[in-house]
Design a protein that fits this description.
alpha/beta, 19% strand, 42% helix, flat, 12 strands, 365 residues
Length: 365
């Protein structure tokens, strides 16, 4: 099960530099001119989780496999993208394919790095992209409304219901608010998702600051934080320049480097944690002498759905899940001690998986 986060922003805000650092590759060309990223670069990163190492140590696992998250570096957008300006059409198509948006905003001054609008104003930059996404959604809504207009006139109940949902979204967008602000009933949730609206995707604002401001941010990033809070969006402060340096260091050097900068963790860790929260994800584990592995699932998954993250056959033939909480697994010293202490639970199809569960699935072939 993959979770894709699209890295977006205006040209020259540090998207590709951040992508290179996060994925520890040189796949994206970081250059000081617009549209240097044409095809979306895709990179997978390991999700840092200290619990996995603890579990693997107790289980004496030969192999340790962390959870993974996919980042997509998407071409820079300019004003008019909703009408095809710049690489607008490609940008919008790429965004439709991701689960969430990490919107990188320039919060640093540097005369050597050209800003597409010749000024540094992250809130205005955010509004530029938000406006283009809303305009694209409005165009999509209007086309859908035209396609079902005749059916609505003929009294088709299904078309009428779809039209009411489209009208509700249109009203919101015309007020300058994103589609994700719409309160959708459970009955309409599936139809709403099927609209594939750009502004329905959860958003994480990433303030890209200079190295000197990496620990505490600056006045520009504070403005972004205020904007994010008003929208109910997530926000992290990162220095893409620092992350590029960190990516080249080994573990010991990385820790010392971050300490010198008064940073408790890398930007990668903060970004992934924020991404997890944004997508409402949790992690469960499988453990044994052969392998310990972390699995990412949406919060609210029941045991059979969690089993399906491993293989669809596990979900189809699900019988039960042998489950131990992380705290009990580590405190008692592993699977057998947990069993002996009566702390291994046999959970059925209705069990809601909890973050940190260590699970073993039984299923019928």
């Amino acid at each position: 099960m993959g979770f894709r986060v699209g890295i977006v922003g205006l040209p020259n805000v540090g998207k590709s530099t951040l992508f290179n650092a996060l994925t520890r590759t040189a796949a994206a060309q970081a250059a000081n001119f617009p549209f240097c990223t044409i095809e979306p670069n895709v990179g997978e990163v390991s999700v840092p989780d200290d619990r996995l190492a603890a579990i693997a140590g107790i289980a004496q696992s030969k192999t340790v496999i962390p959870a993974r998250m996919t980042f997509v570096d998407i071409a820079g957008l300019v004003k008019g993208a909703s009408k095809g300006e710049g690489l607008g059409n490609q940008f919008l198509a790429n965004i439709r394919e991701v689960d969430a948006i990490a919107h990188v905003l320039r919060c640093f001054e540097d005369d050597d790095v050209t800003h597409v609008a010749n000024r540094v104003d992250p809130v205005d930059d955010a509004q530029t992209i938000d406006t283009e996404l809303m305009l694209a959604d409005l165009e999509s809504i209007e086309k859908r409304r035209e396609n079902i207009a005749r059916r609505i006139k003929s009294g088709d109940k299904e078309a009428k219901k779809a039209g009411e949902l489209l009208d509700a979204v249109k009203t919101l967008l015309e007020e300058g608010r994103p589609a994700r602000d719409l309160e959708v009933d459970d009955d309409d949730a599936k139809d709403f998702r099927m609209l594939q609206l750009l502004t329905a995707k959860p958003i994480l604002y990433v303030s890209n600051v200079s190295e000197d401001d990496a620990a505490k941010g600056n006045a520009l990033s504070e403005k972004v934080a205020t904007m994010a809070a008003e929208q109910g969006a997530a926000h992290v402060v990162i220095s893409a320049a620092i992350e590029a340096e960190v990516a080249q260091l080994d573990d010991d050097e990385r820790e010392a480097f971050l300490d010198d900068l008064e940073l408790e963790e890398s930007g990668l860790d903060r970004l992934i944690r924020a991404g997890y929260g944004l997508l409402d994800l949790i992690t469960y584990f499988t453990a044994g002498p052969k392998e310990s592995r972390a699995w990412t699932i949406p919060s609210g998954y029941r045991a059979p759905q969690a089993a399906g993250a491993i293989h669809t056959d596990f979900e189809k033939g699900f019988i039960r899940a042998e489950t131990i909480s992380y705290d009990e697994y580590t405190t008692l010293g592993g699977e057998q001690p947990a069993k002996d202490a009566g702390k291994m639970r046999l959970e059925g199809k209705d069990y809601l998986v909890k973050d940190g569960d260590i699970m073993h699935f039984r299923f019928a072939n």
